[in-house]
Structure formats: C-alpha cells, structure tokens
Amino acid sequence: MLKNAGLSPAFLLPFWRDFLLKTGNCCFLWKNNNVMEQNQLPLWQALQKHTAKKQAWLHVPGHGGGPGLPPEVRERLGSVARYDLTELSGLDDLFAPREAIFQAQQLAAELWQAEESFFLVNGSSAGVQAMLMATCGRGDIVLVPRNAHGSFYHGLILCGATPRFLPVAEYKSVPLNITADALQQGFANYPEAKAVFLTSPNYYGVCADMAGIYEVVRQHNALLLLDEAHGAHLGFHSGFPQNRGHLADLRVQSWHKTLGALTPGAVLHRHGNGIDQERLRSSLQMVQTSSPPYPLLLSLDAARKQMALYGQQVAGEMLAQAQKLRRQLADSLPLLTPGDVEGLGFSLDLTRLTVLTGEMGCCGRQAAALLAGMGIDVEFGQPGHLLAIMGPGFCPPENVELAEQIIATLDKCTPGKKVPPLPEPQQAMAPGEAFFAPACFLTAAEAVGYISAGTVVSYPPGVPLLAPGEVVTPDVASYIKDACAAGISFRGLDNAGRLRLVKQEVGR
Asked: Cα 381 vs. chain centroid, distance in angstroms?
C-alpha cells in the first residue's frame, strides 16, 4: 500500500490532484487548490480536545462515557463510549454548524465538487426525504422510475407531491435503469413536472446515462434529484463507470454502503443554486434525530479523509477483488456483465455481482439462505437472482476457496416457486392524501379495488409493491399471494397480514 511505502499523504495530494484534473477520471475537484486541508480531521481534533479536559459528566447521554453502560456493552464498546457525546461547547451543532462539523462538511463538499454537503445521521433515507421536502410541494409532479427506494414514497407523503412513473429497462428479471429517451417521453406526457428523481447506480450497480438525462431535465427547466446511495466510490478510479453525479441539483450518498463509514452514515450534496437553502436545512432537521451520534459523524469525516488521500488505491483494491471473484465464477455461473447492459445505454459497477440464478434453474432466495448457513452472507436473494456486494472491507477468507463454495452451493439449489414481475402501479390519489385518510384493514384478496393507504415493500431491495394512493388491483393481490408462498416477506402489512387501505373504494 502507498501509505506504507514511505510517501506521506502531504506529498501525494498535489500529485493526485494534478493527475485527476488532467485525466478527468474523478468527479471531484478541490476548490481554492487548498488540498492540504484534506489531511485534517476537524471532528476528531475537536473530540480529542474535549475529552482531554473533561472533569465531570453532568449531561446526556446517561452512560457517562462508558461507566453506565450494561456490562456486556461496556466490555465491547466501552472505548467508543467516551466519544458518544452531545452538542457541548466546542463540539458544534449538526443543524447550525459553525466549527468542527462545519469544517468537516466543507471538506466533503470540496472533495465531491458540491456547493454544500450535509452529514446525515439517519441514513440516505433521510436525505431522500429532505430532497423532496426542500424542492416539491402539494400538487407538484415528480417523474420517477418505479424502482425508487421506499424512502422516496415516504418523502412524497411529507411534501404532498405526486409521482408519475417512467419505464425501467430490464434484463433477465434484473431491473436496470431509465434512459434519456424514456425521460423525454415522460416530459411529453407531463410537461409540468417539477422534478426528476433518479436512482443511479441502482442496487445492482447499473448506472444511467447521467449526461443525457441532465440535458433532458434542463431542457424542461426541472430539477434533478439523485439517489446515489450506492455510488459514493464512483469517480475515484477509471475502472468504474464515469461519474456525473455532480450534475444533479441535489444528491444523496450512503457512505456506509460503499465507503468506510459506520451505519447508517450518509451525506447530502447540494450542487444547484436554484435550491431554497433554508428550506433544505429545515427539512434536514425535521427528518433527523436531534441527538446526532458523534462516533457516526466522526466516521463520516474519517471516510472523507481516507478517500481524499487514498481514494484511488481504496477504489482500485475494491475493483481488483471484484474482478478476481468474477473471473472465478464466470465459467460456472451466469453473471450480469457490462456487455449485458451497455447495449441498452447503461454501464455497470463491477463491485456489484449479480448471479442470474433463474438462468440455471436455481432460486436466488434459497441460494442466499444456504450460503448464509455456511457463513457466506450476500446482500440478498430474489427468486431469479442473487446479489453480492464487495466494498472496501471485503477480505476473501484465507485458506477457503470462496468461489468454489458459492458454485457448489448454487448447484444444489432447486428452482423454487416462480413469482411474476411487479404489477404496474395505478395511481388514484396523491400519496400524502391517501396516507392521512381514514383507513381500514383487509386481506389482499378482500382489498381488490381499494386504494392503499400504506407502503407494502419487500426489503431488500426496498422497491414498493404498493405505495399510498395506488389501487389494489387483482394483479397486486395475486402477486402478494404468490410472493408469500415463495417465502418473500413484506413490510407494511399488519400482524394479521392485512393491508392498510383508504376506506373509500374505486370502481364499486
């Protein structure tokens, strides 16, 4: 590793800056050429200074820096508890930052080429909700692919906007992304659309043509909101799809998903100047805890520093490990490859490894369960595919032929019960209107013709089967029955397995 080769980070930063600016391999620039600041850890320095002078703990949290923790927790996490602090003098305030948090967020903004960056302690889900609350209101239309994360629909409830769906390309049961042409048609159908909400890369690492989509959005004077939860690492290595996330007006990244931050650490970047900045700050405060955990904030600051100093190396190692495992599996298992998606206008992040289990007569859910029993945990399995993710912490086990174990396990799997594709949604009410309407509860079979008042979603990947304001069609009821028979569980059903519905009926 470079950091063990006698080269100091201060020496490397100017070299990397010049390299990146010349090659265009990365999405970020350092403003003001003040690259030496990326060597700093403002939050760590503030926490160290505070703990060094601490005499008495007369404030929350009640564990007092560790002594008050339950013994089992104190034994394992006691050394971290001394940094589990609150908004004390010198430690800044997440929602009115002026000192260490302000400096840390500014460094993140410089690295990711943003006007402002905001640390998120409630995950990228909070960032998605805040993006919508800051930009859209009651009656506004948002163009969105159906495979948006469930937090998008929660954001619609909060802001009052209504979705209009764009078609998502698929390949052998795997949802890919939207094209610029599909978006152009969306604007032709809904020229009044206020914003476009895009997920790129998606859970499977499929990246949309951001430059093409950006041009379409700007033609129609709309806002571009980007869920880049799975793409914070893009732009740090030329082997990844070209990153254009900075073209969005607002984008959210889950640093705990692809970098080294603690769960659920994430960041929201503001790139556009047409955003109501005070409304954005207010929205962020509304959807996050008023007691932000400082160990999580520290991990975000440290993840930024790691990527500023060693980003190309970290990303390169991720890519190398992913390519190695892919090569070992490719002759025996059908994988989603760049060639499968490039002809459709997309690109693929190779650290997302999708096995097309349906092509080999294997149930991906069953395969995931068998692998977990062997101590090999993958991200998730669906009836037709299996997803494995390789992040910066992926370390192949020593003396274990991981690829051979995966191949042998999948060879044992049976087809399992088939599940049809997700039904097309039929929007009958705005999500917020449906959510707050008087509700009743019925089984899926009884609910046909009713309007959903809740979100029904299988997680992961977190794409709703049913969102507030959508009609429970016969296809939806049938899907729930078939999916439950196949072992798929849903969030959004009550303890008796019933749907939450608006009391009024449609078509009866």
From this structure: 18
Q: What are phi and psi of 380, to 5 degrees?
A: -170, 165
Spell out the long-range contacts of 189-193 with Cβ–Cβ below 8 A and sequence spacing 24 or more.
189/164, 190/141, 190/143, 190/164, 191/220, 192/141, 193/141, 193/142, 193/143, 193/164, 193/220, 193/222
Asked if residue 28 is part of any domain, the answer here is yes
* Count of alpha carbons within 13 angstroms of residue 176, beta-carbon side: 23
Whether the Cβ atoms of residue 146 and residue 422 lie closer than 8 Å to each other: yes
Average pLDDT, stretch 189-193? Answer: 98
Which phi and psi (to 5°) does residue 229 adopt?
Answer: -55, -35
The answer, yes or no, to whether residue 508 has pLDDT greater than 90, is no
Q: Kindly state whether residues 7 and 74 are assigned to the same domain.
A: no
- Looking at the structure, do residues 84 and 131 belong to the same domain, yes or no? no
Average pLDDT of the residues of the chain: 90
- What's the CATH code of the domain at 358? 3.90.1150.150
Other beta carbons within 10 angstroms of residue 11's beta carbon come to: 9
Give yes or no for a contact between 352 and 318, defined as CB atoms under 8 angstroms apart: no
- Among 261, 208, 211, smallest CA distance to 233 is for 261
DSSP string, 301-332: HHHHHHHHHHHHHHHHHHHHHHHHHHHHHHTT
| Nearest one of 422, 436, 445, 507 to 469, comparing CA atoms | 436
Q: pLDDT tens for residues 363-397?
A: 999 999 999 999 999 999 988 999 999 999 998 87
pLDDT beyond 70 at 37: yes
- Is the predicted pLDDT of residue 10 greater than 70, yes or no? no
Residue 169 belongs to domain spanning:
2-39+92-309
Q: Note the pTM of the prediction, 2 decimals.
A: 0.91
Instruction: Please tell me the least confidently modeled range out of 23-32, 38-47, 119-128, 256-265.
Output: 23-32
Nearest to 259 by CA among 236, 293, 288, 287: 236
Strand partners, 386: 355, 381
Residue 417 lies in a domain: no
Beta bridge partners of 169: none
| Amino acid in position 101 | I
